[in-house]
UniProtKB/TrEMBL annotation:
Belongs to the enoyl-CoA hydratase/isomerase family. Keywords: Lipid metabolism, Lyase. Gene3D superfamilies: 2-enoyl-CoA Hydratase, Chain A, domain 1 (3.90.226.10). InterPro entries: ClpP/crotonase-like_dom_sf, Enoyl-CoA_hydra/iso. This is Enoyl-CoA hydratase family protein. SUPFAM superfamilies: ClpP/crotonase. The lineage of its organism: Bacteria, Bacillati, Actinomycetota, Actinomycetes, Mycobacteriales. It comes from Nocardia rhizosphaerae. Pfam families: ECH_1.
Length: 254
């Protein structure tokens, strides 16, 4: 359990997220993920990194239980910093990052996927930002890299979801495959990249980041300021408490 890195084939490093039951990462998990991606990219033998997950879904965002257990704002600040570091590690990785998305991709998962270079998804994958329903903001920066502007706004305000097939229509998801074929599909893309000259691939990654129209780091940090404001005002605590009550009620009904 945790963040696992291994060499799959020559030039291909795989970073796996495994935090049962839903891959909602604690603060330490986000920092560990950042370190694993950065270390993989720094290795001169690496030409591409594959980011994947075990379990029911790719990522369920931050660990809300960690936040609720903290009477102050330490957990929130660490989660904010951890997410920022993990998203930045994917974007700034010295080589391309191919992300394989299975099941649900929510909250912080959108930050990872939106900053990736190539996205492959299983046919049961869904993508969304439930932040508004949790009294928080963030990762609209990264959702805007996946869908057109007005759809991004609609998804953000409504906390709605899109399927992998819909994102494939917009061109942000490269390929949609049955879940059993997901790892193979991601590896096919990764091996294609790994067969190129590593010096050229690293230069290409720098060049593409350099011509990006959006500063993803500054944009996301701006969003995080509003999350902190909502928490300081007590709004986020109120909403999270209602969310916990709703979950408890659902469990009793079932």
């Amino acid at each position: 359990m945790g963040i696992i890195r291994h060499t799959e084939t020559e030039g291909v490093e795989v970073v796996t997220v495994d935090y049962p039951p839903v891959n909602a990462l604690p603060s330490d998990g986000w920092f560990a993920l950042a370190d694993a991606v950065r270390d993989a990219g720094r290795d001169p033998a690496t030409r591409v990194v594959v980011l994947r997950a075990e379990g029911r879904g790719f990522n369920a965002g931050v660990d809300i239980k960690e936040m609720n257990a903290d009477s102050g704002h330490t957990a929130l600040i660490r989660a904010n910093h951890g997410c920022f570091e993990a998203f930045a590690a994917v974007y700034d990785c010295q080589v391309p990052v191919v992300t394989a998305v299975n099941g649900f991709c929510l909250g912080g998962g959108i930050g990872l996927v939106g900053n990736s270079d190539v996205i492959v998804a299983s046919d049961d994958a869904t993508f969304g930002l439930p932040e508004v329903d949790r009294g928080a903001l963030g990762a609209a920066t990264h959702l805007a890299r996946l869908v057109p502007q007005h759809l991004m706004r609609t998804m953000f305000y409504t906390a709605g979801k899109l399927t992998a097939q819909q994102l494939h229509h917009y061109g942000s998801v490269y390929k949609v495959v049955p879940r059993a074929e997901l790892d193979a599909a991601a590896m096919e893309v990764a091996e294609n990249i790994a067969n190129k000259d590593g010096r050229v691939i690293r230069a290409a990654k720098r060049a593409l980041n350099g011509i990006d129209v959006q500063d993803v780091h500054r944009s996301y940090r701006y969003e995080q300021g509003f999350t902190m404001e909502l928490n300081l005002a007590g709004v986020a605590d109120e909403i999270r408490a209602r969310f916990d009550d709703d979950l408890a009620a659902q469990k009793k009904e079932n």
